[in-house]
Amino acid sequence: MKPYWLLALLAPLFMALEVAMDLAQPRLLQTIVDTGLPTGDLRLVLHTGYLMLGVGFVGLLGGVACGIFATISGLRFGADIRGSLFRRVQSLSFGNLERLETGRLITRLTNDIDQVQESAQMFMRILVRAPLLVIGSLIMAVLTDPQLSLLLLAISPLLVLTLVIVSRRGHVLFLAVQDRLDRLNVVLQENLAGVRVVKAFVREAHERHRFAQRNEDLVAQTVRASVLVASVMPIMMLLVNLGVVGVIWFGGWQVQAGRTHVGQLLAFINYLLQMLSSLMMVGMLVTRVAQADASAERILEVLEADPEVLDRPDTRPPAGAGGRVEFDQVEFSYDGEEAEPVLRGVSFVAEPGQTVALLGATGSGKSTLAHLLPRFFDVTGGRVLLDGVDVRELLQDDLRREVAIVLQDTILFSGTIRDNLRYGRPEATDDEVRQAARQAQAHDFIMALPEGYEATLGQRGVNLSGGQKQRLAIARALVCHPAVLILDDCTSAVDAATEARLLQALNEATPQCTRLVVAQRIGSVLTADQILVLEDGVIAAAGTHQELLATSPVYREIVRSQLDEGEVADVG
Question: What domains does the chain contain, in order, with CATH numbers?
Answer without folding.
Answer: 2-303 (1.20.1560.10), 325-571 (3.40.50.300)
